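Homework help board

Subject: predicted structure for assignment chain

Our instructor gave us this sequence and asked us to write out the predicted structure in token form, then describe one feature. I got the tokens but I'm not sure how to describe them. Can anyone check?
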Amino acid sequence: MTDALRFGQQGLGGSARFTAMSGSMGALGGDASAVAVNPGGLGIFRKGQGIATISYDYTSNMVDHYGTSTQATDDKGRLGNFAVVLTSPFDYSNWKYGSVIFGYRNKDSYEERFEAKGVNTESSYLDQYFTDIIDEPNLYLEDIPVYFPFGAGLAWNSFLIDTAFGQYYHVNPYYGQTQSRATNNRRGMSEYYLGFGANYEDRLYLGATLGFTSVNVLSESTYKEEMIPNSPFGLVEWSQYDRLQIKGSGSYAKLGLIYWVKETIRVGLAFNTREKLRLTENYYSSINAEWDFRDETFSESPDGYNEYIFRTPYRVIGSLALVRIKRGSVNADVEYVDYRSMKFEASPEFGTDYSKANNEIQSTFGPSVNLRIGGELMYGPLFFRGGTAYWGNPYKNGNHHDKYRVSTGLGWRKSYFFVDLSYGYEWYSDWKVPIHYANNVTLAPSTVDSKRHLVSLSFGIKFQE
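My token output:
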């Protein structure tokens, strides 16, 4: 379910103006990144422009695992967005202006690290592998590595699970080991998009975009159990390394409109279709064990590969803006997302059955409402901006995954040139899947407090008419 939520939620990357207002521009438009919320904002443009943004991310994750807290940090610079907007007036028509856009946006970054460490007195990861094997009573010993090439088979080949007197056992029966997991996530999701917008009677603004998403995720994790002194069977420690790379692409369409009730009041409505992502996975695992009375043991999996399709949820966004010409504006967006509409599908080449995963999506996730409020105040050529965003909890019950953002920024604009600077701070608290693997365990899951700092700087030019 981690990948489903990762691809199903949407980040707020883009221009510095967009991020300074926490992405709340659904009824305002006039920004190359605002089309991510409402393409109707393309009709607001009266001059074409070119814009580019550089961004810097810093993440910090504090994980509490069985009473021990561990912090891990990461940072990364990237291209936040670039776009070119071409605008032209219509002659002799009630349609005033038309605009086309070609742009790039970094939708979301997955650059982050997690580290969890604590003493587990009730279970071991080997419990899960042990259960996998004994649940297959007709399995021949020599077939264990073939039947479980990425899990129990590795433990078997490393002698962490063995047989004695016709019975299976694993080498950590009394627990008390120091248990840890370090996870390093890399790269992210970006998009290229084309769009068209038009202005009718300076009252109704319509727009549509067609986007093409690129996915590139690399996740590496190392799980380790360090035994208590003089543990049975002479095991000192064992560790498992897992590597997963997900790549792919997808496409989507967005439709939107902005209507000026009057010059000071504007409303917006947008619909984002479900995105069809075609994804491939390459994965690999290995186990290494150190012993007191025998040589080190090592086992590795074959290179795994899979192809599948993932459909993201649809979105409906309603917006309201209050505008005072040459003074400033305030905008509010309400976004409805139905995470139950997420779905895994088998690719034609791989007939994988995803019914269990899809049933889990239906039972785990539900509809959610995201809120964004942003505004800017104009003082001569200077703009002062701020905003806040709230991502509603996508889970039906149990796991709380509410996410928040506050942001601020400055802008400086002249007739044909502008510079924008923004700072955003995001945070959420969550629980991770527990890394104990046995029934009737009373230990609580790990919890994580995640914080993200984002700085963006945009440079732009306005084209002369």
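Reply (TA_rk): Your tokens look well-formed. For the description, you could write something like this. The domain at 2-124+172-462 is CATH 2.40.160.60 (Porin). That's the kind of observation they're looking for.
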